[in-house]
Write a structure and sequence with these properties.
Blueprint: H1 2-33, H2 38-44, H3 46-55, H4 58-67, E1 85-91, E2 97-101, H5 109-118, H6 124-127, H7 130-133, H8 135-153, E3 160-169, E4 184-194
Helix pairs in contact: 1-2, 1-3
């Protein structure tokens, strides 16, 4: 009898974990690709409907809220690195700024996600010194210049494009009570691509 109760408890826990993970996966997928018709697509998919009904039940929400299972993968990996902020400054032949943008001109949403993931390689620029980086330092500079070059080639009026890399400089816990709105950027590096 005691073993049966344990097995039922473990089964219920696994059901909650799997339903919550499936609900998050369906919600993210439909929300990303089919933002306008997400509710209809979830209702039409029996697996998504079942996962949503289990995950959104009040006892399950209460359990996930108190145990941390409702936070998704953040429960297992809370210290994920922040994304780099890229700033492209497009200038004409006279040196006047035509525009500034944070992303290259991509055609698909997947490109933005891959781009933001790829900028993580620049973390080595601030975590390692020049001697430790060695040849990788030149590689990172070439990648940065090529990104600037990609933006420059997409704009016929652009004579040069400068790519500046930043990270968010968050307020410390000691300064947090006095800080009203603190959002500053930590400068990492800059590369420029000019028209040949």
């Amino acid at each position: 009898m005691y073993t049966l109760a344990k097995l039922c408890g473990i089964g219920a826990l696994l059901l909650v974990i799997c339903a919550n993970a499936a609900n998050t996966a369906f919600d993210s997928y439909y929300g990303f690709y089919y933002e306008e018709s997400k509710a209809e697509l979830v209702a039409a998919n029996p697996a998504a409907s079942l996962a949503a009904s289990v995950a959104q039940a009040k006892p399950v929400q209460l359990f996930c809220g108190y145990t941390g299972f409702g936070t998704g993968y953040g429960f297992f990996a809370p210290n994920v690195a922040s994304d780099f902020i890229t700033l492209y400054e497009v200038k004409d032949e006279c040196g006047e700024t035509l525009r500034q943008t944070n992303l290259p001109p991509f055609h698909h949403k997947e490109s933005v996600i891959r781009y933001l993931s790829a900028t993580g390689m620049f973390l080595d620029k601030i975590t390692k010194d020049s001697v430790e980086l060695g040849l990788q330092k030149e590689f990172l500079e070439v990648v940065q210049r090529q990104l600037a070059d990609y933006v420059r080639r997409r704009d016929p009026a652009a004579a040069s494009v400068t790519l500046d890399l930043y990270l968010y400089d968050y307020v410390t816990l000691a300064a947090a009570p006095e800080a009203e709105l603190y959002e500053d950027l930590f400068y990492v590096d800059s590369q420029t691509s000019t028209r040949p």
